[in-house]
Amino acid sequence: MTDLTKLSAAALADKLASREVSSVEATQAHLDRIAAVDADIHAFLHVSERALDVAAGIDTRRAAGEQLGPLAGVPLAIKDVLVTTDMPSTSGSKILEGYMSPFDATVVARSRVAGLVPLGKTNMDEFAMGSSTEHSAYGPTRNPWDLNRIPGGSGGGSAAAVAAFEAPLALGSDTGGSIRQPAHVTGTVGMKPTYGGVSRYGAIALASSLDQVGPVTRTVLDAGMLHDVIGGHDPHDSTSLAEAWPSFAAAAREGATGDVLKGLRVGVIKELPDSGFQAGVSESFRTALGALQAHGAEIVEISAPHFEYGVAAYYLVLPAEASSNLAKFDSVRFGMRIDVPGGTVEDVMAATRDAGFGDEVKRRIILGTYALSAGYYDAYYGSAQKVRTLIQRDFDEAFAQVDVIATPSAPTTAFKLGEKIDDPLQMYLNDVTTIPANLAGVPGISIPSGLAAEDGLPVGIQFLAPAREDARLYRVGAALEAVLVDSWGGPLLDRAPVLNSMGGAR
Question: Quick check: keyword ATP-binding in the entry (predicted)?
Answer without folding.
Answer: yes
